[in-house]
Design brief:
Structural class of chain B: alpha/beta
Order of helices and strands of chain B: HEHEHEHEHHEEEEEHEHEEEHEHH
Radius of gyration of chain B: 21 Å
Number of strands of chain B: 14
Shape of chain B: globular
Shape of chain A: globular
CATH superfamily of the largest domain in chain A: Luciferase-like domain
Helix content of chain A: 25-40%
Strand content of chain B: 15-25%
Oligomer: heterodimer
Distance between the termini of chain B: 49 Å
CATH class of chain B: Alpha Beta
CATH architecture of chain B: Alpha-Beta Barrel
Distance between the termini of chain A: 39 Å
Strand content of chain A: 5-15%
CATH topology of the largest domain in chain A: TIM Barrel
Strand order of the largest sheet of chain B: 1-2-3-4-9-10-11-14
Number of helices of chain B: 11
Largest sheet of chain B: 8 strands, parallel, barrel
CATH architecture of the largest domain in chain A: Alpha-Beta Barrel
Chain lengths: 429, 381
């Protein structure tokens, strides 16, 4: 049976994370991160994943207050987690727009040394001047420039990671390109796993091409089996032109899982969680994100607004805008009218349900089916509770996967690269 | 070798003299001791953890780890974050440079170090003056130290403002209103500096200490001005207790001119310490000899000699404490802790355990009020 890869995402600043549940713990105390990371390691996961924040989200000119707000800085936190874990990969999301290659390559190489070869970098880019207001660099990059900068950033980081000789002697480097013109000497020897693992998140055409050319893992959106297969085939087919084999890029969609003793109980749990995620206030907010208008006077238990969305709105800052608000609004209205749903009920119905819902046996079977059918190489699990949201999966699903031979029972290597089954990158002297 | 000024070390005091000395001592603030654990570059976690634990065994206030883009070595803030879960009490103070690093990132990293260490973080602010460092970034040419220190002062200011940009009770988790935070307790800082601006608020909630400890080496004039205004701990370089007392008084006056309470600043004498191989050196004392730039006065002698020097300067009321940079931490830190510190503890001059949990508590510094909080909830700073 094909082996799957598993990773754990720390619950973050979005409405997936339920903070109102009595079991919900601190989003900032180190103990919460330690609990989740230790749980992932107990489940023999490939890696633990942290997202990044560089500006608090705003809505209508004010700080968004309905979801979890705030988080630690990824790399500092992961270095601390390296002290309380032994094998688990440690992945930090770090923006390529608001950092410089020398400094970030050094911080990543440092994490790789301090964790003995378990570091990963999820490369993201940002274009918005809103986030830029917190940085010297400031400003705006258009979509194309974001990816050329990111690609050159990764290539430059790899030059730095390769700049010491294998026997540990520093050598000067020089990089001249469109975005960076730097030279000197790197301060850190080559990493225990050659280079930190590079993850790319994003489904756009530019993102796929960038991942095919440069990434070890792609963190993608989860959809139907067919959509997953199409994505998988498309991305893997792009590898050959960069001289890479299909196994060189691991495809991992982000997924949510709801368990129950029976499939029926799991469905009930899933509905309950959706209602916790879509509070009355969050329902109105979700509506405002589509409509681009202040809808605070509407009753979340009443009907949808009659007015149309404002496609030019800048109501929402610091998160991705809805691409075609008029079409989404039409779809939601149709759903509401067909089933007689209120605003809140419509949002619960229309926005994504959990990816896998069922008894442990059902979920294990469906995860395996996705991997067998080449819709994914593995999954990044996004729990809805901090810090216990992964406990059930590790206690009840992982043993089944191990029993059926689709997931490791022990770590066989020490580095993240070895967990992923990737060879150490060739040293380019 | 020339011995400058003061301490030709006297014979050790007898027990009687010791008691007499103590009874004459004015009610004074506790002695503070810190040590650098960096030396020749090491790329593993274990060696750093071992040294930090050693320092913790001696109940030192904090350990430092110097850093620079200009020489081999790991990122210091990362190393001390790695050390944090394997220690429980000792303060952790990495160097972060302000010339090429984004101020927002500095603030987030140090705040996160404070969270993962449960209130033991500080940062030693420094600048990158060389053209070689500037070329590593390719964004701006090298600049003279006074300009870089002016910017470092602005960075220290903005970093502290970001730490205050969340009030302590901003997180409310109000199920009734659906609100996770009270956004009236999150503040844009709207900082406009001479070379950068930062909107805020921080991404990291206010750290356990409120504001982690800011350390600045004031041995150069432009750094000294910034230290007087922004530092909680100031290093000075002195070769006699009289000189140290004068420097401390100057730091206090200067801090007061900036509207600060001088009693909220700790002045530590920076010493580079060569404990050699012998129990006592033939001619122990301070040397004008091999000055290591920015690392304070050079001391050579045995662990007992160092304890004598610390005792004398401290009893003279000249200093709040010392920051010691062992010439070879792997060799000398053990001798400092088990020799020098043990003797100071035996003389009841230094704590034998940590009564507090945070670095601010070790240093006797209060948790600062939040400048953005309404006076009704917290006393104005």
């Amino acid at each position: 049976m094909k082996q799957m890869h598993l990773a754990a995402h720390f619950p973050g600043v979005n409405s997936t994370t339920v903070w109102a549940d009595p079991r919900s713990g601190s989003q900032i105390d180190f103990a919460s991160f330690e609990h989740l990371a230790r749980t992932a390691e107990r489940g023999k996961f490939d890696f633990f994943f942290l997202a990044e924040g560089l500006r608090l989200r705003e809505h209508n000119g004010r700080i968004h207050d309905l979801d979890v707000v705030g988080r630690p800085e990824s790399l500092t936190l992961l270095n601390a987690l390296a002290a309380v874990t032994d094998r688990l990969g440690l992945a930090a999301t770090v923006n390529a727009t608001f950092n410089e290659p020398y400094e970030l390559a050094r911080r990543l190489a440092t994490l790789d040394h301090l964790s003995e070869g378990r570091a990963a970098w999820n490369v993201v880019t940002s274009s918005d001047a809103f986030t830029g207001e917190n940085f010297r660099r400031g400003g705006y990059l258009d979509r194309a420039d974001r990816y050329t900068r990111a690609a050159e950033f990764v290539a430059t980081a790899r030059e730095l990671w390769d700049s010491w000789t294998p026997d540990g002697t520093p050598r000067p480097f020089a990089h001249t390109g469109r975005h960076f013109d730097i030279s000197g000497e790197f301060t850190v020897p080559r990493s225990p796993q050659g280079h930190p693992v590079v993850i790319q998140a994003g489904d756009s055409d530019e993102g796929r091409e960038f991942a095919a050319s440069a990434a070890d893992v792609i963190f993608t959106r989860h959809g139907t089996l067919e959509a997953g297969q199409a994505f998988y085939a498309d991305v893997k087919a792009r590898l050959a032109k960069y001289g890479r084999r299909p196994g060189d890029l691991t495809i991992m969609p982000g997924v949510t899982v709801v368990l129950g003793d029976t499939d029926a109980e799991a469905q009930e749990n899933a509905t309950e969680i959706r209602h916790l995620q879509v509070s009355p206030q969050n329902a109105l907010l979700a509506l405002e994100q589509v409509w681009g208008r202040d809808l605070s006077s509407y009753d979340p238990d009443g009907p949808l607004p009659d007015i149309d969305p404002d496609p030019e709105s800048d109501l929402v800052q610091g998160r991705v805008k809805v691409a075609d608000p008029l079409a989404v609004a039409a779809k939601w209205r149709a759903l509401s009218e067909a089933k007689g749903l209120s605003i809140r009920q419509t949002v619960v119905e229309a926005t994504a349900r959990q990816s896998f819902i069922g008894s442990p046996r059902t979920v294990a079977g469906e995860l395996e089916a996705f991997v067998e059918a080449e819709a994914a190489d593995g999954f990044i699990l996004v729990p809805h509770l901090t810090p216990g949201g992964l406990d059930d999966f590790v206690d009840r699903v992982v043993p089944l996967l191990q029993e059926r031979g689709s997931f490791r029972s022990e770590y066989t290597g020490t580095t993240l690269r070895s967990h992923l089954g990737h060879a150490e990158p060739v040293w380019k002297g | 070798m020339s011995v400058s000024g003061n301490p030709a070390v006297p014979d050790g005091p007898t027990g009687t003299e010791n008691r007499t000395e103590r009874s004459r001592m004015p009610a004074t603030r506790p002695l503070h001791l810190a040590a650098e654990i960096g030396g020749p570059p090491r790329y593993d976690a274990a060696s750093h953890v071992a040294l930090a634990r050693l320092a913790e065994g001696g109940a030192l206030d904090f350990v430092t780890l110097r850093d620079s883009f200009a020489r081999p070595g790991l990122d210091a803030a990362a190393v001390l974050a790695r050390v944090a879960p394997e220690t429980a009490r000792v303060g952790l103070v990495p160097t972060l440079t302000t010339t090429h690093t984004e101020p927002f990132h500095v603030s987030s990293a140090v705040a996160t170090l404070d969270w993962v260490s449960r209130g033991r973080a500080g940062w030693h602010a420094d600048v990158s003056t060389t053209e070689a460092e500037a070329r590593l970034f390719g964004r701006r040419p090298a600049a003279p130290a006074p300009a870089l220190w002016q910017e470092a002062g602005e960075v220290a200011d903005v970093v502290a403002r970001l730490w205050d940009s969340w009030e302590d009770d901003a997180e409310i988790r109000s199920v009734a209103t659906g609100r996770f935070v009270d956004r009236d307790k999150l503040h844009h800082i709207d900082f406009e500096g001479s070379t950068f601006s930062v909107k805020g608020p921080a991404i990291v909630p206010r750290p356990p200490q409120g504001r982690p400890v800011t350390v600045i080496d004031a041995t150069t004039a432009p750094a000294g001005r910034v230290a007087a205004r922004h530092a909680d701990v100031v290093y000075v370089r002195a070769s006699s207790p009289e000189q140290a007392a004068a420097l401390r008084a100057e730091v206090h006056r200067s801090a007061a001119r900036h509207g600060r309470d001088p009693q909220a600043v700790r002045v530590l004498v920076a010493l580079t310490v060569d404990l050699g191989d012998a129990e006592t050196a033939p001619e122990p004392g301070l040397e004008s000899g091999p000055q290591l730039a920015g690392h304070g006065t050079y001391f050579r002698g045995g662990p007992v000699d160092l304890a004598e020097l610390i005792t004398q300067w401290y009893r003279a009321g000249a200093v709040d404490g010392f920051h010691l940079t062992p010439l070879s931490p792997a060799r000398d830190l053990e001798r400092i802790v088990n020799g020098t510190v043990a003797l100071l503890q035996h003389r009841s001059l230094f704590r034998t355990f940590y009564p507090g949990g945070t670095l601010r508590e070790h240093l006797g510094l209060t948790r600062p009020a939040n400048r953005y909080a309404a006076p009704r909830t917290e006393a104005a700073s």
